[in-house]
């Protein structure tokens, strides 16, 4: 019987391994976390997250590939990473920045969550 092979990601790129990954990640969001992460499991249950998912053998591989720790399952490491980003003046992931969202029932000119002044129709 052929041996099972797993595609893992390292700082130098993807490779085949006979050992399964110990951490999972999201390719587009560039984050990694535990395989039993509640946030990742919810996303997988909704049918998302399967295609952009990547796996790492070790945490060092994830860091080396430019991924950040998950804010849910690796909270302590995420807070350290976030503080280091703020100290260096680096940008945080796009998801943590305020987004322009339209409040339910608001007119087309009322937008909340942005730095712009809210306009109201008289």
UniProtKB/TrEMBL annotation:
InterPro entries in the record: Ada-like_dom_sf
Lineage start: Eukaryota, Fungi, Dikarya, Basidiomycota, Agaricomycotina
Protein name per UniProt: Ada DNA repair metal-binding domain-containing protein
């Amino acid at each position: 019987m052929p041996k099972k092979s797993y595609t893992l990601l390292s700082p130098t790129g993807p490779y085949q391994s006979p050992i399964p990954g110990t951490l999972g990640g999201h390719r587009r969001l560039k984050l990694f976390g535990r395989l039993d992460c509640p946030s990742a499991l919810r996303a997988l249950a909704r049918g998302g997250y399967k295609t952009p998912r990547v796996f790492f053998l070790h945490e060092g591989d994830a860091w080396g590939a430019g991924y950040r720790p998950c804010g849910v399952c690796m909270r302590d490491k995420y807070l350290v990473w976030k503080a280091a980003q703020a100290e260096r003046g680096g940008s945080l992931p796009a998801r943590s920045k305020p987004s322009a969202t339209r409040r339910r029932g608001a007119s087309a000119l009322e937008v909340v969550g942005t730095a712009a002044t809210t306009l109201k129709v008289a």
